[in-house]
Specification:
Blueprint: H1 2-18, H2 24-35, E1 39-41, E2 55-59, E3 67-72, E4 77-81, E5 86-89, E6 95-103, E7 112-119, H3 128-155, H4 165-172, E8 186-191, E9 195-200, E10 204-209, E11 214-218, E12 223-227, E13 233-237, H5 238-242, H6 247-263
Antiparallel strand pairs: 1-7, 2-3, 3-4, 4-5, 5-6, 6-7, 8-9, 9-10, 10-11, 11-12, 12-13
Helix pairs in contact: 1-3
Amino acid sequence: NNNNNNNNNKLNVYISENVPETSEKEKKESRNIMQHAPRIPILNVNNGNTDHVRICGWIDSYAKKYGVGYLLSNKCMGVYFNDSSKIVMCPDKQTVFYIDNICTGKDEEQQRSSIQEMSIGNYPSHLAKKMTLLLHFDNYLRQKCENEKENKEEEREKEKENENENEKKEEEVGGGKFERDEIVFVRKYVKTKYAISFRLNNKTVHTIFMDKTQVVVFTNSQTIVYIDKHQNKQSMSLCQAFNSQSKDLQKRMKYTQKLIEKGFRSR
């Protein structure tokens, strides 16, 4: 916990000193550049290798001012900015994809975006601040995850030999550079008094409750992962989850369903 607090303080200091407010002139310049970029349908991944990618860590301390940073189980790092643009860095820490909505239809599937591929060392000047935030969110979250992993290893007994199928798939996902149709990113997120929920473009919905329980709905495979208050992990079908005898799980499934039906559509 002390390590996490120290990292958070360092991030606070760095951002306050190195990420100035975006001027109206810079915002206008960014909009003009993106309006002339090629437009293609927003990515909606249907790739077996990406079906079980989920959120591993996030930081929303700067959500109102900048956006939400997150780390995925495929080792990609991303930021959902408060202007609804997104940026994702591949595990090679060189390849970056920037996604910006140009226009939005009534149906989410009709959204159109400009998607640009760039590198850490070569990107448009108007994205300098967003790139700076990406790199420092990345440093903070990876350090935080390492600290949490070390703490768990100290408390954990020998790991079980038999991992469930979803966990195996998550471990298999990851690498250096991904192609554009393999990129997974947060399409939308919503935060309430009780939870924060992320909707990914691979149709996964990952809800983390304030009591540290989690529900991950893998829509493509019609399965879920439930992490209870004791951090025990269970995998089951959607049907089993909704018919579970566990009142805690049923309550969280209904809340997640409510967020999907109302929370995401209203954003």
